Amino acid sequence: MSNFFNFIKDNKEKTFFIFILFWLLVIAQIETYSQLTTSGTFAATMRLAIPILLAGLGGIFSERSGVVNIGLEGMMIMGTWFGAWAAWLYGPWWGVAAGIFGGLIFGLIHAIATVSFQVDHIVSGVAINILAAGTARFFSVVAYANESQGGATQSPRISGEISSFSLPFLSGGTFLGNETIDLLRNLEDLNLFFISDISGLLGGLTRDISYLSFIALSLVPICMWVLWSTPFGLQLRSVGEFPVGSESLGINVYLMKYIGVTLSGAFSGLAGAYLVIESSGIYRENQTGGRGFIALASVIFGNWRPTGVLMGSGLFGYADALQLRSEESVHGLLLLISIVLLALSIYLLFNKKSRNGAISLLMAFGFGIWFLNSTSVPNEFVYFTPHITTLVVLSFASQRLRMPKSVGQPYKKGEGG
Fold it and tell me: How do the pLDDT tens digits run along the chain, 417 residues long?
């Protein structure tokens, strides 16, 4: 038993993920909760997770350079407005480019304030969010005042869309101009434990994927490579860890911080453009819905690494997709939360963390009793599911979190002597 718990301790993240996935598959076998693992749910998960993923990747570049960026929300807002405006006038790909530009400009403003003028990072981030909301409203009044379908709070509907594709033979795509079989769909329809569930997962991620979604997902390994396998990435991370030492080695600390924060704005702008072009086809005020703040939470959850941000954004996207597709299935999450909290309490008690273990145990019984004595959940809880799921995971996820040492600390050129 001791060796078993030691293995879990040494492989926390993997064990946590496998444990949740296993019980999710088990609960999905109950007919009422079958929507938990369908391809449609996972396809919706991807579309809803990508904006958070992109903004989270931007947050990594900023915070790895030592600058806290709670202005991700505002930069996303600028991405939604500029993305919708350019897509309405010139087409969706121009909208993507304009969204990146809009976020980049506000990232640059944040960099000027925090790096050059030494403004407190939190104050500057709050100002960016307020400024972005006001700027979007002003631009909407100017651009759409005479448009019948537009106005102060929304744009006209975007015309055109970005093409999509499916993998041949696996997800029913085309090969040499001919339609192929949809193997994953056939396996999913067999309703076999694990096989059909995994087929649903893979099918949702490989069927009718837009090229913009493919580009967004490919940025995860690209960011990993840039940050950990290139001289630029090493310099950026060293600035966030020890700027004085970095400057003594000839690194331009100000330049690296500017690049990191500006890149975070560009990523957030792309996230906003994706939200408009792929999810809704129209700009609406308050469209981001706090996703920039969730992206910042995913940066922390992901331990300031792209793969961790991918997991965090996927979790939020899954909870969001579930409450949109099947409110009944949200009730099944009560059982899943109860099981996870019960396992967590056992782990904490084994590691002699009695207080936290007791709290987790009480919460596990609370969710279990709620599940056994109900057949549905209130609509308010359903709508709040994505947010409460994120809060629970951030509170209890067993990760070795370590932020960059100098993040949030002001730095003046030459202060190292």
Answer: 455 555 555 556 567 777 888 888 888 888 888 888 889 899 999 999 999 999 999 999 999 999 999 999 999 999 999 999 999 999 999 999 999 999 999 999 999 999 999 999 999 999 999 999 999 999 999 998 888 788 888 999 988 889 999 989 889 888 878 888 989 999 988 888 889 989 998 999 999 999 999 999 999 999 999 999 999 999 999 999 999 999 988 899 999 999 999 999 999 999 999 999 998 889 999 899 889 999 998 898 888 999 989 988 988 888 888 877 776 778 888 888 888 888 878 877 887 778 878 888 898 899 899 999 988 777 667 667 666 666 666 665 544 677 888 888 888 876 655
Separation CA 323–CA 328 (nearest Å): 8
| Calpha distance 149→274 (Å, rounded) | 21
Element (H, E) at 179: strand 178-179
179 phi, psi to nearest 5 deg: -70, 140
Whether pTM > 0.85 for this model: the answer is: yes
Residue bearing tokens 């960016």? 128
CA distances from 237 to 51, 88, 115, 298, 404 (A): 24, 39, 16, 19, 8
What are the sequence ranges of the domains in the chain? 1-36+310-401, 38-166+208-304
Task: Identify whether the C-beta of residue 226 lies closer than 8 Å to the C-beta of residue 291.
Answer: no
